[in-house]
Design goal:
Elements (H helix, E strand, L loop, with lengths): L6 E7 L9 E6 L2 E2 L3 E2 L15 E3 L14 E5 L5 E6 L6 E5 L2 E3 L4 E3 L1 E7 L11
Parallel strand pairs: 1-11
Antiparallel strand pairs: 1-6, 2-3, 2-4, 2-7, 5-6, 7-8, 9-10
Length: 127
C-alpha cells in the first residue's frame, strides 16, 4: 500500500450528472492550489505534477459527459478550505479538518462527499 491523499473528495449533483462547469479550489497551509475546471483539460493535473489537488479524469480524453461523480484527491495537511462551484448551482464552501486516529496515533485519510444543489428560483446572485 502506497501513500494516500489526506482527503478523498467525491462531488455529485442533486439532479443529474456533475456539471461540466464545475470548478474546485483548494487552499491550505502551503497556499492555494491551481484551480481544477472540469471543462478545461489544461487545468487537469496528475500525480507527476507538483500540485496537491488531483481529480480522477483522463487527460488523454476530452471533458467527460454525464459524469455521475467527480473524485478528487487532496494531498494536504491540516485544515483544508474547499470551494466547489458550477453554473446554476449553489456554491459550496467548507473547511475540512483531518481525522485523527488514536489507534494509528496520527492523522488518517478521510472520505468527504459534497452534493451540488440547483440554485433556488429567484436567486440570481450565485455563480
Amino acid at each position: 500500500m502506497g501513500p494516500e491523499a489526506m482527503f478523498e473528495l467525491t462531488i455529485t449533483a442533486a439532479h443529474g450528472p456533475v456539471p461540466r462547469s464545475t470548478t474546485v479550489d483548494v487552499t491550505w497551509s502551503a497556499g492555494q492550489e491551481p484551480t481544477f475546471v472540469l471543462e478545461q483539460p489544461s487545468t487537469w493535473k496528475t500525480i507527476d505534477d507538483p500540485v496537491n489537488l488531483i481529480c480522477d479524469v483522463d487527460p488523454a480524453k476530452p471533458p467527460p459527459e454525464g459524469l455521475s461523480a467527480l473524485v478528487c484527491h487532496l494531498w494536504t495537511a491540516g485544515p483544508t478550505d474547499v470551494v466547489v462551484k458550477a453554473k446554476g448551482y449553489t456554491r459550496l464552501e467548507t473547511t475540512y479538518l483531518p481525522t485523527y486516529s488514536e489507534q494509528c496515533q496520527g492523522y488518517v485519510p478521510t472520505a468527504v462527499s459534497l452534493e451540488l444543489a440547483l440554485v433556488p428560483e429567484g436567486d440570481g446572485g450565485v455563480d
